[in-house]
Amino acid sequence: MTKQTLIQTHNRIKPFIHKTPVLTSQLLNKEAGCHVFFKCENFQKMGAFKMRGATSAILSLSEEEKRKGIVTHSSGNFAQAVALAAQNLGTKAYIVMPKNAPQVKKNAVKNYGGEIIECESTLKAREETANRIKAEQGASFLHPSNQDEVIYGNSTATIEFLEEHEDLDVILTPVGGGGLIAGTALAAQHFSKNCKVIGAEPMQADDAYRSLISGQIETNETTDTIADGLRTNLGNCNFPIIKTHVEKIIRVEEDEIIKAMQLIWERMKIIVEPSAAVPFAAVLKHKVEFKNKNVGIILSGGNVDVTNLPFG
Question: Under CATH, to which class is 3-48+147-299 assigned?
Fold first, then answer.
């Protein structure tokens, strides 16, 4: 993978995505003890950075592959991203979703023109159902985080970020499946002088933290976290990138995530989902480490059920 690959990916997806704003808050800078710059992917089309990777992956397919359609399994943001990107690019999207996925997310997928196939809420059931559709329809499978074209698409958020703020000392992202932090690390490697990349994840789903320590992909015993977008595991495409280019992973507790989320809502007047607040929680937890630095945070998404907020 070269710098040119990332530039080409960015140029290819530009017509289909938003260039999202970077926001700051003097109050939050004071709270954190550093200069925090928020890259607002909660303002991306369909409300999350996933739009970048989904668009990149579909654009990399041949015309014949596009004609046969695409399939993915997801209960969240990637389902919506694939449905909307497929609609924009004129291909059929089959979305495998667990029966217990929130109705609001199913509705969003339908609104974007995706065809939902329901299955049991186990990873095994999701994979088997997706494989069946792939075989029956000849559809191309898109992975939410463990596919090169998806990772390259995700890198474009950081390319934009660094074009606007080249003096960032560090960029933090949440870590779920690993596709965002891997893309962020690749972009930082090629488009900055010495910007470090740090991941943040919930204590209750800390597989990436343990994977970096052990040097192999670890899985989660529990996924009992409010950050529902981060309950997944790393994969064999993104882990080598993370291992090579990510400085470390910081873990945060549930109450720290909720506090960070509430601060962003109250002080910045913007909607972010719990997963997106995890990196800011990490900065607030380690103020000494980030003191007076220029800190970039990717606010990964804003798709939240406003009738079920963790703060009153």
Answer: alpha beta
Q: Kindly report the CATH number that applies to the domain delimited by 51-141.
A: 3.40.50.1100
The residues assigned a catalytic role are: 50, 75
According to DSSP, the residues that pair with 301 across neighbouring strands are 48
pLDDT at 143: 95
Position 308 scores a pLDDT of: 85
Cβ atoms of 66 and 87 closer than 8 Å: no
**Domains of the chain: which residue ranges?**
3-48+147-299, 51-141
CB atoms within 10 A of CB 241: 22
Cα 150 → chain centroid? 10
What does DSSP say about strands 22-23 and 35-40: parallel, antiparallel, or unpaired? Answer: antiparallel
Are the C-beta atoms of residues 88 and 80 closer than 8 Å to each other?
Answer: no
Distances in Å between the Cα of 64 and the Cα atoms of 53, 87, 250 are 20, 16, 43
Structure tokens at 64: 């014949």
Give the CA dihedral 129, 131, 133, 138, nearest 10 degrees: 180
Tell me how far CA of residue 299 lies from CA of 43, 100, 115, 173, in angstroms. Answer: 9, 26, 28, 8
**Which is nearest to 305 in space by CA: 75, 19, 23, 71?**
75
Q: Residue type for 257, please? A: I
**201-238: per-residue pLDDT in tens?**
999 999 999 999 999 999 988 888 999 889 889 999 99
